[in-house]
Each structure stands twice: as structure tokens, then as C-alpha cells.
Amino acid sequence: MIKVDSAILASVSKPARYTGNELNSVHKPYQEGMVRFALSLPDVYEVGMSNLGLKILYEILNARKDVAAERVYAPWVDMEEKMRQHQIPLYSLESFTPIKEFDFVGFSLQYEMIYSNVLNVLDLAGIPLLASERGDDMPFVVGGGPCVYNAEPVADFFDLFVVGEGEIVLGELVDAYIAWQKDGRPDGRVGFLRRAAQVSGIYVPSFYAVDYNEDGTIKAITATEGAPSVVNKRVVPDLDAVPSVTRPVVPYIDIVHDRIMLELFRGCTRGCRFCQAGVIYRPVRERKMETLMKIAEKQVANTGYNEMSLTSLSSADYSRLKELVPALINRFSKEGVSVSLPSLRIDSFSIELAQEVQQVRKSGLTFAPEAGTQRLRDVINKGVTEENLMEATGAAFRQGWSTIKLYFMIGLPTETDEDIIGIAKLAYRVLDLYKSIKGKRGAKVTVSVSSFVPKPNTPFQWFPQNTPDELRRKQQLLKEHIKDRSITYHYHDVPTSFLEGVFARGDRRLGKVLLTAWKNGAKYDGWSDHFKYDVWMNAFETEGVDPTFYANRERALGEIMPWQHISCGADEAFLWREYENAQKEVLTGDCRRDACNFCGVCPNLNVTVIDGGLAK
Amino acid sequence: MKTIIRAEITKGEEIRYISHLDYAGAVERAIRRAGIPAAYSEGFNPHMKLAFASALAVGVTSSSEYMDVELAEPYSLSCFTQLLEQALPKGIRLKRAIYKDAADKKALMALAERASYRIVLPSGYNKEAIKKAIASFEAELDVVIWKVTPKSRKEVEVKQYMAAPIKFVEGEQDEILMDILITPQGSVKPEQILRALYDMFGFPIEVETVQIERTGLFCRRNGKWTALIA
């Protein structure tokens, strides 16, 4: 058990990040044979504690008598310095056990810019970074989350990955581990990995050999050791049938999402062509309203939170939202619990809802038209028209809102300067609309523009990301067209988007770049204050790897992608068809309510859409 | 008539490092979990009618904090005590609860005029140096320290806030006892006194290595210092 000296804690920012003891944290006395599973999101406590997936896994694993799941996050830089100085190994927040004494260390990989922190956390724990160098006394390092659909850039550092929804895979993984232990750990680490590879949804990267062509593209990915040639994602067929979070750990300090998260459904089939989440979390599976009310009841009773967020990829699409929202408000308002929606659809229905949940408070509303012209919105299949936006913002202004935030992307396929200027024009139209409704100026519009990063398993996975210079030019072009001081213009840091673009579609040859960058100080890359672009560029040069090969190269149909052996269920033919539809500006409907688009997910994974609105 | 319950609670070692705001949030969530019918403010963003006597700094524990909770309806003290005890998280204990005297109009915040602290010292220090530093501090008429915040920097005379001489108590673990006045014009924190002792009077122990506990909050009743719940 690690005991951190109070003088150390007193000298770092927010020491409560490192002291545990939170309400609902699970403290199990260690018993012989118990499997210890450390769950981590390798970012700072406030970010890591906000992740819904880890809350689910924590509760499901701890429901088993033979498993103790504990939490660990990345120490902030001040605490890291103290830990290294005083040789304090990274420890879990429940039993203060050194992480290297656990059986498993699971990392939630939510975005590519977290990779350097994975290495840093392993190093602080005293676990060898390379999976190939870990001895029999070391934990198995497990990855999960959206990045596993192309985990190749970090393949060298993980023993295995969970592809899909961990709540149904981890139990089987733990069972395999217990059986291997009981058998006397035959064949050591590799013996367990062989067994793990037989669990559906488990990907053991060291069992796949990758060969390259002379031009640097992939020649073949070959399964060895009896591992499956393709690892298919696992999904929960019916969310009502599996346990959900009812006793989340309630932190003492304010975290990013410091509220109840009520997960209405998984998946989204609106089919936006840039969106990876819209493909990898298919199919749509709703929880019944009755189930949600019960879960909400338990969470309020067990946490005492005063806010509940209706969490999903597109919560406004929940089939019975019109009944659910008033039901939740009626049930919990006397206990001072408010209901919030994290995202709004661009229509007047959403404004009614926003009115209902926010009561009288008129904080800003956020919409995501994503592109500045109708042509480009059709390319990306964002089924939203300018009229929809005017209708929604008009309704908001009439209800008393005056602050609107609009999200856009630049660098999308087929984009021209006209599309960029269209973003400014749209912002101006919203300002004018306010004036025409209210008879005076007074609206505030924030235009927030991110740079498009093509992601694996999307129709744009073949598309070359715009070069950093081109992105900068577009950012400046837009700036020149926004003169009104009622419009605030934000845009993202280009180097960060470029590096994200490299790793999103990268392959195993990036592992050595990551290792070198980390050795030279890269960590907390997602935090602009800590992002060290020079360190990264030097690492590419040192390792002789060209980053533009991954970010800015157009792929041909038929090229073997680094993630070819990992399947989220969607067929490549579907993604290509959608890429062609994009170029033809042809829209594709939502299979949730309209016709099936033959993406392949339901038949490939033997699951179906579960949607209360489907009863036709 | 409003029902207001005044309670004495603790802030234990487990939650030593949380801020006053986080502490208040933890208590508020416990009241909600307990199912106690607290009153909420009207308005855009309703909040629980919950007030504390005095904010406690990060890193300081307390065996004696006070809070007033207004209830939406008449409510029994025994229910309050029983339900809240079960709902409180690690590090917070309920010691006592009473109905607030309806005639007492003063806000809890304005009531506390004096606080006592127990400071547990690490072992292995020269006791004579400790005694000498305290004696020199006590011998001075004025002790001026710099109060530095991110926004300002000002000089403050601290001896005006000392309600009693600092005591050094030898034992298994040596302790220092301090009594500090809380006035409408201001106050001083025990760690600031410790820092002044270290910086100006040769006190051998750095403030980061001690454990500070608030042991009482007092008001004047009939000319006598009494605990906030007498």
C-alpha cells in the first residue's frame, strides 16, 4: 500500500485527485485468487472520472466477487514530478496498490492524442512499455474505446484490445484468465494470450504479422497462433437486458461531467459521412423508457446529484423523448434535480425541449451545421438545410435566447473557398434573423471551426487530409470574411489536427515514433499548453517516418488498410458507396426510420435495431 | 414559520484536501441522498438552502463545522439525524443537530467570532526552538505579514486576531493550540501564523509538514464564549 506524504500532497494542485475515498468507490479486501483489474483513462482525474464507459465497467466488474476493479488516472504534471522525485510508483485510488501488481491494466482510448499519456502512465507504474518486454510478473495491458478500430499505432504497447462493448467481453476475458491461473499458467504470458485470442471481440496484436509493399502500403496482414483472421466487434444486443450504472463514484472535486449520465441509447444512424462514432457504435439500440426511469431513480438515490444529463450520440433522436423529459422533470424536480440535454438537433422540436429542460435560464444554445453551404452539407450527408437552422434559431430567439454557438468543420472533401465563405454568410444570416425578429441587434454568435480529420471506418477513410498550410489558409480566409464584432470566431490548432490525422489512419510503424516522442517529453498532447509539436516532428525525422504518408495521401479503393483485420461490422463496400454518394452530393436516409442502407452491421454481428419509434 | 436545522459536522482526514465549495457540495448531495426534504431557492437555478459558518481551507480538517439547513416542511430531528448519518460520505460525521432558535435572526456566517485550532507537529524537532519562537511571537506587540492572493498583496497585522496566547503542548505527538478571532474586518488563518513563526521567529517546522485541525467555532453569548451549538 502506497502512502503519499502529506507534504507532497500539500504542494501539488488539487491533491484530492490522488486521495480516493470517494462515495461509491468500491474497496474490496484482497483475497487469494481475486483478479485485480485497474481501469484507467490516462488523462487527468477530472477528465478520466467523467467517462461513462469506465463507470459501466467499474460497476460490472465489481459486481463479481472474484474481481476487484480499481481506478487510476494520469497524475498532473506537478504530481508526476513529485512522484518521480520521490520514486512513488503509480497506485490505484481504492487500495493504493501499485499498478504493476494488478492482473490487468485497462486503458480507455477515447482519442489519438492520449497515446503519449498511455506510455507515461505505464512508465510511472514501472511497467515495461513494450508488450514484448513484459515478464510473467507484469499485468496484461488492455485497450478499449473507439481508437481500437485502428489501434495499430499503439499495437506494440498493448497485450490485447477489447473490440466493442466491454461490458460483455471483460467478463469472458476474466473467466479465461481465472481458468489459465487454475491450470497453472501454462506457457506463461503467451499461453494466456492464446486463450484470450479465442474470446470473441479480443484482439491480440502480437498474433498478427504485417508485411509491407515497396511503396509503403500494406501487402498483407496475417493471423498467427490460431487467432481469427478478422476480429469482429462485440455489441450488447439488448441494453435493457444488461446492468447499467446505478452507483457511479461521486467525486469530491468538480469534474468535467459532474452529474448523472443517463444513457438513452447507443448508436446513431443519421449517417454523417465524416463521423466515426456514427459507424462504429451501430446499430441503434434504445433503452425502454421504463428502464430509464428505474435507472434514473437509483442514480439519484445513490449519488445525490442535482443534475441529470441525457447522454447519447444524438439524444434528441430518442423515440420517446417527448414523454421522457417531462416524466423525469416531474419525478425529480422537487428533489432539486434538473435535466439537461448535451446536444441539440437543428429543429424547433429541440428548442421546445431546451425550453422545457432549462426552464427560464437563457444560456447559449449550440448547433452543428458542420458546413457552410447546402452543397457541402449534402456531401457530408448532414441532413440539415439552411431553413432548418433559421427555423431553429428563430424559435430560440423568440423564446428569449440570444447567444448561439455554431460548430463547423473545414477541410472536408470537395470543399471550395465558396464553402468556407458560406460559414461566414450563415453566421451573418443568424445575426440578421435576430434583428428581424427583435427589431434590434443583440445576438451573439460564436463560430467554432475544427479541422476535419479523416477517420477509419468512415466513408472518408480514403480521403487525403488537407495539408497544414491549406488548413491555415482556409482559417485565414474565413477570418477575413468575419468582420462583425457580434461574431466570435474560434478555430483549432492546425498541428494538433495534423498529428491526430497521422495517428488516426496510421500503422504499426508509428509505434517507434510515439516511443521516441514520449522519451523526448511528449505527454498531455491534447492539452494545448503541453503539446510539443517540435518534439513530434523530430521524432518522425529520427525514426525516418513520413507523417504526410498517413495524413495527406489519398488511398485507392482496394488498398489494404492497417485496420483491415478489425471489423466494426460495416462493410467496406458500404463505406465506398457512401464516399461515391458524397462526391455526387446524394443524400442517404437514416435506416432507423427509413429504408436499410445495407451497411452490413446487423447481419455481420447478428443484431438488430431496437427503436421505440419503429413500431409502424 | 421556517424550519431550520443547525448541525455540527466534521471534515475528516479522508477529505482533508477538498475545498470548502467541494465540502459544501458533498454535504448537499448527502442531504439529497438521505431524502431529507430540504428547501430550495426560487428562480432560474434553484439551489438548496444550506449555509455554513466558516470556510475551511484545503488541507485543514475539522472536528467542529456548523451548517444550517432550511427544510421545506416541518421535520423531526431524529429523522434528520438518522437519515443524514447514513447518507454522509467518508470523512464527514454528524455530531449534533438542533432546531435553530426562531428568534435568532443572525446568519450562521455572522455568528462565528472565534475559532480554535489544534496543530499536530511532526516529531524530531528541537522543542526549545519551538518554545522560543512562540515566546518571541507572543512578546511582540505587532506582527505584520504579507497576505498574498493571485489578485492582491497587502500587509496585515495579525496579533489583533489572536484571541489567546499560542500554547505548546508536549505529548506523544507535540501540538500547538491556537485561538483566532473572526471579525467583520477580517481574520487570519492558522497556516499564516505558522508561516510567520517560521519566517520571522525561528520556528523550526515548515507549515507543509503539520496537520491542522479546527476544533471549535465560538460566539459570544451573555459575555461568554460558547460553542455555536451550546
Largest sheet of chain B: 9 strands, mixed
Helix content of chain B: 10-25%
SSE pattern of chain B = EHEEHEHEHEEEEHEE
CATH topology grouping of the largest domain in chain A: pyruvate-formate lyase- activating enzyme
Structural class of chain A: alpha/beta
- Pair with the biggest interface: A-B, 30 and 35 residues
What characteristics describe this protein?
heterodimer, A: 616 residues, alpha/beta, Rossmann fold, pyruvate-formate lyase- activating enzyme, 2 domains, 6-stranded mixed β-sheet, B: 230 residues, alpha+beta, Alpha-Beta Plaits, two-stranded antiparallel ribbon, 5 helices, 24% helix
Word description of this protein:
- The complex is a heterodimer of chains A (616) and B (230).
- Chain A has helices at residues 6-10, 45-48, 52-62, 77-85, 115-125, 166-182, 188-196, 277-280, 289-303, 321-332, 348-358, 374-379, 386-398, 417-438, 468-480, 494-504, 511-519, 533-542, 547-551, 572-583, 601-605; strands at 35-41, 67-73, 104-108, 140-144, 160-162, 202-203, 208-212, 218-223, 231-232, 260-263, 265-266, 285-286, 307-311, 338-340, 365-370, 403-410, 444-451, 487-491, 566-567.
- The longest helix of chain A has 22 residues, at 417-438.
- In chain A, helix 11 runs parallel beside helix 13.
- Chain A is globular, with a radius of gyration of 24 Å.
- With 616 residues, chain A is an alpha/beta fold.
- In chain B, strands 1, 2, 3, 4, 5, 8, 9, 10 and 11 form a nine-stranded mixed beta sheet that branches. In chain B, strands 6-7 form a two-stranded antiparallel sheet.
- The interface between A and B is medium-sized, with 30 and 35 residues.
Describe the structure concisely for a colleague.
The complex is a heterodimer of chains A (616) and B (230). Chain A has 616 residues and is α/β, with parallel strands linked by helices.
Topology overview:
The complex is a heterodimer of chains A (616) and B (230).
Chain A: H1 6-10, E1 35-41, H2 45-48, H3 52-62, E2 67-73, H4 77-85, E3 104-108, H5 115-125, E4 140-144, E5 160-162, H6 166-182, H7 188-196, E6 202-203, E7 208-212, E8 218-223, E9 231-232, E10 260-263, E11 265-266, H8 277-280, E12 285-286, H9 289-303, E13 307-311, H10 321-332, E14 338-340, H11 348-358, E15 365-370, H12 374-379, H13 386-398, E16 403-410, H14 417-438, E17 444-451, H15 468-480, E18 487-491, H16 494-504, H17 511-519, H18 533-542, H19 547-551, E19 566-567, H20 572-583, H21 601-605
Parallel strand pairs in A: 1-2, 1-3, 3-4, 4-5, 9-19, 10-13, 13-14, 15-16, 16-17, 17-18
Antiparallel strand pairs in A: 5-6, 7-8, 11-12
Chain B: E1 3-11, H1 20-34, E2 50-52, E3 60-71, H2 77-87, E4 94-99, H3 108-111, E5 114-120, H4 127-139, E6 144-148, E7 153-157, E8 167-169, E9 175-181, H5 190-201, E10 211-221, E11 224-227
Parallel strand pairs in B: 3-10
Antiparallel strand pairs in B: 1-3, 1-4, 2-3, 5-9, 5-10, 6-7, 8-9, 10-11
